[in-house]
Amino acid sequence: MKFKTLLLLVIIISVSCKKQESNSALVAHWSLDVNANDLSYYQSHGVIFGDPVYVNSVIEGKALDFNGDDFIEITVDGETPAQIRDLSTGSISLWFKAREWNIDTTILPILYYGRDEVCPDAYDATNGGLIIEVGHGGIFPSENVFFTVYDEECEYPTMCFDSNDDSGIIEPDKWYHFVVSVGKDYNVGYLNGEELIDRRYNFQSDSTSLFFKDFVSHDKIWIGKGHWKNKEVYFDGLIDDIRIYNTPLGLEQVKELYNSQI
């Protein structure tokens, strides 16, 4: 009887390990169904600050409802996870639903990577890393989703694109799936399973290749929190199923991911 129990336990562990390793390209996966644990092989679990609420999502499972002062910090032994920090190419996939915000004064940060402290006299989200945000207040008011990267601290963005006013305005209280892929000599964005053909480059172009390894600040990974000018800002709305891959996803892979989740 003890042998059978032990054998069953070995089988369960083996199946569990196979599930974790079934997608070797997946280096982080925060499903946000019941906690901020990383479901990938690397188990880079997050810590929740504040009191976000679990609610029904547009995809299977739950989503986290951030009410404007909640956030998640991802850390491993006090540092950003090495398997993310060392990526020179790859992809980020996430779901979000933003509430209304003041496009003249703030942004809604979904995923932030970079400086722990705000830059002095900052005029933007100058974090020396990466930010995926909704909106862009101040000089360039916008209702789009943005992907912005920096290879210098406290300077203008090195590369930035948004979903464009003509085709990619983000409506409040509506779910969106956003994917960004960065290859050796390109970057591309996808919204709801379709390539953002008309995405607008505010800095650089679609041939720019900058990802985590290229950044100069590696202090923090935050979900739902970021820097804007001289203050910390927070996401107001729902965030779900954030994934980071060590390979650039193509259109068909993004379509498959999108269609498999809705």
Count of spatially separate domains: 1
Helix content: 10-25%
CATH architecture: Sandwich
End-to-end distance, in Å?
44 Å
Helix-strand string? HEEEEEHEEEEEEEEEEEEEH
Radius of gyration from CA coordinates: 18 Å
**Average pLDDT, to the nearest integer?**
89
CATH fold descriptor: Jelly Rolls
> Which CATH first-tier class would you pick?
Mainly Beta
Return residue spans where pLDDT drops below 50 for at least 5 consecutive residues: 1-22
The helix tally amounts to 3
Description:
By secondary structure, the chain is mainly beta. The chain has one domain: Jelly Rolls (Sandwich), CATH 2.60.120.200. It has 3 helices and 18 strands. It has helices at 2-21, 82-85, 251-261, and strands spanning 26-30, 46-49, 53-56, 62-67, 71-74, 90-98, 108-114, 130-134, 145-149, 159-162, 176-182, 187-191, 194-195, 200-203, 220-223, 225-228, 231-234, 236-245. The strands form 3 sheets. Strands 1, 3, 4, 6, 11, 12, 13 and 18 form an 8-stranded antiparallel β-sheet that branches. It has an 8-stranded antiparallel β-sheet with strand order 2-5-15-7-8-9-10-14, with no helix packed on it. Strand 12 (187-191) and strand 13 form a beta hairpin. It is globular and about 40 Å long. The model is unreliable at 1-22 (pLDDT under 50).
